[in-house]
Specification:
By secondary structure, the chain is α/β, with parallel strands linked by helices. The chain folds into two domains: 28-263, TIM Barrel; 276-369, Immunoglobulin-like, CATH 2.60.40. It has helices at residues 2-24, 58-67, 95-103, 142-151, 176-183, 200-209, 223-226, 246-255, 270-280, and strands at 39-47, 72-78, 110-111, 114-118, 125-129, 155-158, 189-194, 197-198, 212-216, 236-241, 258-262, 265-268, 281-288, 294-301, 307-311, 316-317, 323-326, 331-337, 344-351, 354-355, 363-369. Helix 5 (176-183) links the parallel strand 6 (155-158) and strand 7.
Length: 371
Amino acid sequence: MKTTIIALASLFSFLSINAQTHSHAGAQPLSYPDIEGYVTLKTDLHMHSVFSDGKVWPTIRVEEALRENLDAISLTEHLEYQPHKADIPHPDRNRAYHLAIEEAKEHDLLIIPGSEITRSAPIGHNNAVFITDANQLLHEDAKDAFSTAKKQNAFVFWNHPAWYAQSPAGTPILSDFQKERIKKGELHGIEVINTVDYSEESLALALENNLTIMGTSDIHGLIDWSYTQKGNHRPITLVFAKEKSIESLKEALFSGRTVAVYNELLVGKAEYLKPLLQSSIEIVKAAYIEKTQVLEVELKNISSSDLLFENAMPYTFYDSSPVFEIPAGESKILKVKTLEKLNTLTLQLVALGAYTAPKVHPTIKWKIIVE
């Protein structure tokens, strides 16, 4: 009997320790700084539940978003593809949105009504968000679905354009159908990051056609299983809005004020990406080592992305590679050999994990006052 009690006590201790370890692993909230003139909203506007081809109830999507400190989400259920219909019949295509908004009513999380217009190539998959009624988007002719979305003042973006199931070469092809939608003001954005894929070709299309740059998780299962347990956080779109509201978020998306983020990868137009990176690094202190011309500069990364930089100054570093990383939430001290003592220094770094165009990294500058 004594042996049994000891064994049970050991078992309960083991389970308790493992349960605590498991429940907190990878559950860190995401944080990115505001930029001048705008608040930075963390959004994921492409996800699914059991009301299309997802594997979870809509309330789980809300709970996951709250845990990760997101500001806005949209459950964009497939309109035409309903594999769970026999088990979960729902004539109202707005049902997932209603369940999510009920779950989020006591929280500061924006729930954006949306749906996915799901067709084969050359039309592809497209999300319409800020819609007023998903049921009205159900049309046999895809052109009618897009025109109805426009009548509802929806923001529409092209999903996973490089998806090899629809584009076997793994590169996006802008079809005549999509060109017509852009011309008619019925297609406004494009995913350059979808799940784990970053498409340089999609970024090129975004810049060539003035489409808003998007990053999304396109989550079907659990965020934990697909991302956090693998050491990643979900892809998101940072939206630079005038305030945290549905109206302001919508205006910012139509204006193209976004940066797509996946872990250490950041993709966006220079006018938004550069101030984001500049705000993500805090200059803690800058002072010369006594009796030297070596300036110690302490930098702190206040974002949730590990940031990789390369020195772009005429001055070199002491005791450091010209290429270095500052992990999320951590600090690094650079020792800059300025050759003579300076009162101010313009720190110039190339952000190697960031892209303003295919294979183009931005150079970020900080003006430092020496103590």
